[in-house]
From TrEMBL:
Main location as per UniProt: nucleus
Helicase ATP-binding domain: residues covered: 390-553
Gene Ontology process terms (BP): mRNA processing; RNA splicing
Name used for this protein in its record: RNA helicase
Enzyme Commission identifier(s): 3.6.4.13
Native species: Polarella glacialis
Reactions the enzyme catalyzes: ATP + H2O = ADP + phosphate + H(+)
UniProt keyword ATP-binding, yes or no: yes
Disordered: region residues: 79-166
Cellular component aspect of the GO annotation: catalytic step 2 spliceosome; U2-type catalytic step 1 spliceosome
């Protein structure tokens, strides 16, 4: 809002009222136009002449209006100009009274250019004002997924309802539900009738004066009659004594006698009387029931047949050979829990039991389940050390808790703290490195606490905030806690913060170490617990000022480790074969298999399905379930469901199952010894996921997933010599092998300017940090002093890479915000839009080519999303075009989240689907770093820091060889490939990034294409491919 916000708002409302009297309307653009004209006029007659030129009605009303408006504007002064770039600046408006003293001379004065220091001060002031507005919007527009908070009136009302027993409570709830339903139906009927009336009136108005056919006239007449009848019935119902449906009187003659009634009821019993020939006359339903009953009846000689059948076993040709096992762990003994025997089946069969008796049985069943949960809690290793743990937390502000996987650190410690009263002075927070872990752990703890998820126990992840004001135990991803420092840098709402899975050393976890350590020194009342599953916790202790270490020893059952006799050439095939070996030769128990990514998991599912297809009923049922980070929530929850009796569950997981989640009934673990790690080359800017051997600590974590319910087995698909001599002790921290652009921007937004002296546990490489600062400066997120700019504060608000955030902000300049929102959503799913079945590769390639659009891959992705949206987000359409419906849904979620954030960062929504150049320029505004030029040999070389790259074969520009391209990312496979490629013009670089490119960098683009290169040869290459 402009300066003088209070008087201007009142003036704006006064103008609206006056214009309503003169014109009968007061649209916002017209009001703004009138105020703008009035601010340039000295007197009422001058304003009247200007308004008459715009066809305002002449007369005394207009004369009085103009005179009063000029008088009202005099003490206020000239209104501030329109916001530029979506942000309002109070400094841009002249002071009150400036207009009256020599306005013409002020207009004639030339604008004095601001110095660098003045520009920096203005940007800092605008940045701080934007920060305050963002905080205010956060507090006003926080969206909760969990149940709503309870106000004081509701709490007082709820306390007034006190019941002596459960029966009274249930009756009261049923009565309230029925009353509310009747009230809703009555209101809904009135609204529907009103809607119908307006629909009929609109139809009559639209067709008025038109020449109608007899069918159309009959339709309009019928619609009017139906509405009149409905209105009449509604009026009559108010006169009647009864409101609703009334049972009709008996009109059937057979109902007059008991004999007739018994004949009517006898029809229901006919299906249970065998009046047909079993061989020919039975229908399909009856044949199925008879066959089911027959299978359930014991027959003579059945046991002998089963014994003969089990004398033989299936033989696998390519069985994996393992060495003799090594047994580890198994020093924890839990007290057995004797479950109370009961029979729910009898209760379910007897449907004539009184309602009170059924309720009592249901209450007893819930009590048994609660006892089972509490017994399970007591059986965890951490329970034996509950008193000592709480005493240590009371005595020390920072505590390092070390316990093996499955010891109960994540689920039990927050509950212990809640039980002793830490939640009365603030929330108990617990971070998780992954979204799946935060959701699953919160669901489990809410069951143990006995509350609905989102009340006392909740979670907060990207796209979903399942918490309320009454939440006392909050599980969140470490990224969400890091973003919360923007609005609450002192963590005032928390009394305890638990950094869980600290041994994984993720990028966000390492940053949280430094921030939480600093806050703990400032807030003596804040308790900090660092939870780790590795025994090497001395490093954590030294970092947190020699904090004490609390060990939770013990594993439930021993685990035997099996190594292969020789290295395996293909670990994917070896994993599948080992799964079948376990299923055919081992006892009951579920299997957990570790893979490096989603693609391997899907290939393994297909391979298991192929190898078990011909086995039929000779083997027990196999339930193959995947688990990885991008899997939908409903499919993720399936791995936690109990395994059906007689079946075996095979869980195919990434390293998400190492420590983040715990799956019950896992007895066997298969470890191929590989994982994916993120690597970043600061010189080339290439960030890629590379399959590397896992560390010894990671292998031990995987083995620890077995042996939770009984003695377990871990099958390692590598030799013992490889484990001892080829595997590193620990993985390198992610902060030393990642792009730090987003993290540096976040730290700058929090207020940490001296990054070189930030207290990192393991400092990142200096060249990586310098690269991040240079990139942010080039994106205008930092000024030449290294301070955060207003642009940088807006970019920090988006949960995206800084380059992509700059693209979205630049889209406002080119009026293509709607299109760029879609592009950002599609880029956020990591090239997982198309899939290519092996047996239908040609069809999938053709379907992909049909989506190609001019401009490049970003325009192709935009076209795919628009087509999907036009089909109503159809699943069948995705299957027909070989598209990942799951990935498109995630892209839609990202897009919707970004749409909700536009107002927060003051970006005006706009759309121009035909402005292709504007869309490409907006993308180039953020990714001008990533440009490459064509060389004579047909390859590409990056414009800055030259090195050779190639267009990825899946790109829509593959084979066309444009002279100058901009790419989204580099990936390393057999070569360094560019993904997400668009074609650009040299002059665009000078337009969007004049501070980064000079004319000499772009010389040589007017030469001819090399012989044998270009679009024609590209088409031939694609045909050969």
């Amino acid at each position: 809002m402009a300066s003088g916000g209070g008087p201007l708002v009142a003036l704006h409302r006064w103008v609206e009222g006056e214009m309503h009297g003169m014109l009968g309307m007061a649209a916002a653009p017209i009001v703004a136009m009138v105020l703008d004209i009035a601010s340039n006029c000295k007197s009422g007659p001058d304003l009247q002449k200007e308004l008459e030129k715009t066809n305002f009605p002449k007369g005394d009303k207009l004369e009085d209006f103009c005179k009063n408006l000029v008088d009202k504007l005099a003490p206020i002064g000239r209104p501030a100009a329109k916001r530029s770039g979506g942000a309002a600046s109070s400094s841009s408006a002249p002071p009150p009274g400036k207009k009256q003293k020599g306005e013409e001379s002020v207009k004639a004065e030339p604008e004095v250019p601001l110095t660098k220091e003045e520009l920096r001060e203005r940007d800092t002031r605008e940045r701080d004002e934007l920060n305050e507005r963002i905080k205010q919007r956060d507090s006003e527009r926080t969206k909760k997924v969990g149940p709503g908070t309870i106000g004081a009136d509701q709490e007082k009302e709820s306390k007034s309802f006190e019941f002596s027993n459960d029966d009274e409570r249930r009756e009261a709830i049923e009565h309230i539900r029925m009353t509310a339903r009747r009230k809703y139906l009555g209101e809904r009927e009135v609204k529907i009738a009103d809607l119908r009336s307006r629909q009929v009136a609109d139809a009559e108005w639209l067709l008025k004066g038109e020449k109608l056919s007899s069918a159309e006239e009959q339709y309009i007449k019928l619609e009017r009659q139906l509405y009149d009848v409905a209105k009449q019935r509604m009026g009559e119902r108010g006169v009647e004594k009864q409101d609703g449906y009334a049972m009709p009187d008996e009109y059937d003659e057979m109902a007059e006698t008991k004999v007739g009634q018994s004949k009517r009821f006898s029809v229901l019993e006919q299906r249970y009387e065998k009046t047909y020939d079993e061989k020919w006359e039975a229908n399909e339903q009856q044949q199925l029931e008879d066959a089911t009953v027959k299978r359930g009846v014991a027959r003579y000689g059945a046991q002998k047949g089963r014994e003969e059948k089990t004398q033989y076993q299936l033989i696998l040709d390519d069985a994996v050979e393992f060495c003799d096992p090594e047994v580890v762990g198994g020093n924890f003994k839990a007290e057995p829990f004797a479950e109370e025997k009961h029979s729910d089946s009898e209760d379910e069969k007897d449907m004539n039991v009184a309602k009170g008796v059924r309720d009592d049985r249901a209450a007893k069943k819930m009590e048994r389940e609660s006892q089972k949960l509490q017994a399970c809690r007591k059986s965890l290793p951490v329970y034996l050390y509950k008193a000592q743990l709480l005493e240590a937390i009371r005595d020390y502000q920072v505590l390092i808790v070390v316990g093996e996987t499955g010891s109960g650190k994540t689920t039990q410690i927050p509950q212990y703290l809640h039980e002793v009263g830490y939640s009365k002075i603030g929330k108990i927070g617990c971070t998780q490195p992954r979204r799946v872990a935060a959701m699953s752990v919160a669901a489990r703890v809410s069951q143990e606490v006995g509350c609905k998820l989102g009340h006392d126990v909740g979670y907060n992840i990207r796209f979903e905030d399942c918490t309320t004001d009454r939440t006392v135990i909050e599980y969140m991803t470490d990224g969400m806690l890091l973003r919360s420092f923007l609005n609450e840098p002192d963590m005032q709402s928390y009394s305890v913060m638990i950094i869980d899975e600290a041994h994984e050393r993720t990028l966000h976890t390492d940053i949280l170490f430094g921030l939480v350590k600093d806050v703990a020194r400032f807030r003596q009342d804040l308790k900090v617990i660092i939870s780790s599953a590795t025994l090497d916790a001395e490093k954590f202790s030294e970092y947190f000022d020699n904090a004490p270490i609390f060990n939770v020893p013990g594993r439930r059952y021993p685990v035997s480790i099996h190594y292969t006799k020789a290295p395996e050439a293909n670990y994917l095939d070896a994993c599948v074969i080992t799964v079948l070996q376990i299923h055919l030769t081992q006892g009951p128990g579920d299997v957990l298999v570790f893979f490096t990514g989603q693609q391997e998991i899907e290939e393994a599912i297909d391979l298991i399905s192929y190898k078990t297809r011909g086995l039929g009923a000779s083997v027990a049922e196999l339930l193959v379930l995947p688990i990885y980070a991008t899997l939908p929530t409903d499919l993720q929850a399936k791995i936690f469901e109990p395994t059906p009796e007689g079946a075996r569950k095979i869980v195919l997981a990434t390293n998400i199952a190492e420590t983040s989640i715990t799956i019950d009934n896992i007895v066997f673990v298969i470890d191929p010894g590989f994982c994916k790690q993120n690597t970043f080359n600061p010189r080339t800017g290439m960030e890629s996921l590379v399959v590397v051997p896992c560390s010894k600590a990671s292998a031990n974590q995987r083995a620890g997933r077995a042996g939770r319910v009984k003695p377990g087995k871990c099958f390692r698909l590598f030799t013992k010599w490889s484990f001892e001599h080829e595997l590193d002790d620990d993985n390198a921290p992610e902060i030393q092998r990642s792009n730090l652009g987003h993290v540096v921007l976040m730290l700058k937004s929090i207020g940490i300017d001296d990054l070189l002296h930030f207290d990192f546990m393991d400092p990142p490489p200096p060249e990586t940090l310098i690269k991040a600062l240079e990139q942010l400066y080039a994106l205008s997120a930092l000024n030449d002093q290294g301070d955060l700019t207003k642009m940088g504060r807006r970019m920090a608000e988006f949960p995206m890479d800084p380059m992509m955030s700059k693209v979205l902000i630049a889209a406002e300049k080119y009026k293509v915000v709607n299109e760029i929102l879609t592009v950002c959503g599609m880029l956020g799913v990591d090239n997982a839009i198309f899939y290519r079945p092996k047996d239908k590769g040609l069809h999938a390639d053709n379907a992909r080519k049909n989506f190609h659009r001019a401009g490049g891959d970003h325009m192709t992705s935009l076209h795919v999303y628009n087509q999907w949206e036009e089909t109503g987000f159809s699943l069948n359409w995705c299957m027909e075009n070989y598209l990942q419906n799951r990935s498109l849904k995630r892209a839609r979620d990202i897009r919707e989240q970004l749409v909700d954030m536009l107002d927060k960062v003051e970006i005006e929504h706009s759309s121009d689907p035909q402005n292709l150049d504007g869309q490409l320029k907006a993308i180039l505004s953020g990714y001008f770093y990533n440009t490459a030029r064509l060389r004579k040999d047909g390859s590409y070389v990056t414009v800055k820091h030259p090195h050779t790259v190639e267009i990825h074969p899946t790109s829509s520009l593959f084979g066309q060889q444009p002279k100058l391209v901009c790419y989204h990312e580099l990936c390393l496979t057999t070569k360094e490939y560019m993904r997400g490629v668009i074609e650009i013009k040299p002059e665009w670089l000078l337009e969007v990034a004049p501070h980064f490119y000079q004319s000499k960098d772009l010389d040589g683009f007017k030469g001819k294409m090399p012989k044998g290169q270009g679009a024609a040869s590209g088409r031939n290459a694609v045909a050969d491919l």
